[in-house]
Amino acid sequence: MQIAVDLHSHSGYAGGVGQIELSDVSRAMKLKGIDVFGTGDCLFPPRTEELRKQLSEVSSGLFSLSHDPSKFLLQTEVIFSTKLAHKKNKTIAHHLIFFPDYISIYKMQKLMKKWGMKNTIGRPFITSTEQPEMEEQLFEIRNIHPLIEVVPAHVMTPDGIFGSKNDLDELIEFYGSFLPNIRIIETGLSADPAMLKKIPDLKKLTFISNSDCHSSALNRIGREFTMINVEDADYPNIIDSLRKNKVSLTAEFNPAEGRYFLTGHRAERKDHTQNVFFKEDIPADLICPECGRKMFLGVHQRCKQLQDINCKPIPRKFMHLVPLVEVIAASMDMKSVTSKKVIQTFETIMNIFPSEIALWRSDRLEVLLDKCIPPKTINRILAVQSGDFIFDPPGFDGIYGKLKIGVF
Ligand SMILES: [Zn+2]
Ligand SMILES: [Zn+2]
Questions:
Q1: Gap from CA of 77 to ligand 1 centroid (Å)
Q2: What pTM, to 2 d.p., does this model score?
Q3: CA distance 295 to 326
Q4: Which of helix, strand or coil describes residue 127?
Q5: Which ligand is in closest contact with the Cα of 274?
Q6: Which domain holds residue 22?
Q7: Distance CA 286, CA 294 (A)
Q8: pLDDT tens for residues 138-150?
Q9: 162 CB burial (10 A radius; 0-12, 13-18, 19+)
Q10: 123 Cα: distance to centroid of ligand 2 (angstroms)
């Protein structure tokens, strides 16, 4: 069977957001068509207990609220920080970890205590003074349970393994002998398979796409997701499918929407009166012409550095998407995706389609939507479905790209 998974999220414990109720998450999952969702922050002890209390196991390693079909998978994000022998600065890289059960989480919490790590936030740090120590930590995590999976998160963003801050040429510099255990990577919002496919180190790995959301809003949950083929909807089958690259499709942001796509500085920075960003001809020393400070290299240019034009990529199916509520809002010239008119239209559409994913994958959109919603909104939905949208200006320095639908 084919299922839609979104395996990277955060709870209120990751900072910046209030409490997020699992019942709200489940409601949004149904509307979006997400079958399995990563819990976020499952390593943080108060979160672990919250999940244990609210969810019960419905199939091996998947959990649900009572009388509710939405399924959750135990997931956290951690930040590995270490010192590589050949690098001056510390290397810091975000990773997802998936767990098959609570016992494995408790064992990992024990390990963190042994290593002297603080486990006081939703997305904890795992630090080490040098690379061999981190390699050992990774093996200790893997040895907890053969179905634990460590996945480099949003690989190209500044905090990702291949991000510009780390400036690595190859994954082996970071993982050493642990590298064969890295089988899956997350593309992140600022990159898509087309940009990553010619990077030799990633060629054989499975690409997954997740929302990395910090909210249960309809334009956050499932804004990126992965369709996979599984024998059964349970944790062992999902991990097996991911390891064997049984991905049938990833749904991605247009990378130009991602907040780290181009190199630049936003207008709000010190000594700035305007936005500065570069599509081409980036200053070689990366010094910002406006404020004189160093810029981080955007994902677009970072990918180019790592690509090998002779790399023969494996085929990967993916589509670019914009969350439906954002498309509706744009078609009505509304700024807020939660305004009454937008939500009413969204609900009308959801009476026709079983989920938003079903809508995007339908080839009868026009017929089904005709007469139910305004023609302008239908046209915008059709334009997004056929990829007729751009982000201008594109994202840079933490700002999302600005959506323009059907403009070319
Ligand atoms: Zn992250
Ligand atoms: Zn600047």
A1: 7
A2: 0.94
A3: 30
A4: strand
A5: 2
A6: 2-257
A7: 6
A8: 999 999 999 999 9
A9: buried
A10: 29
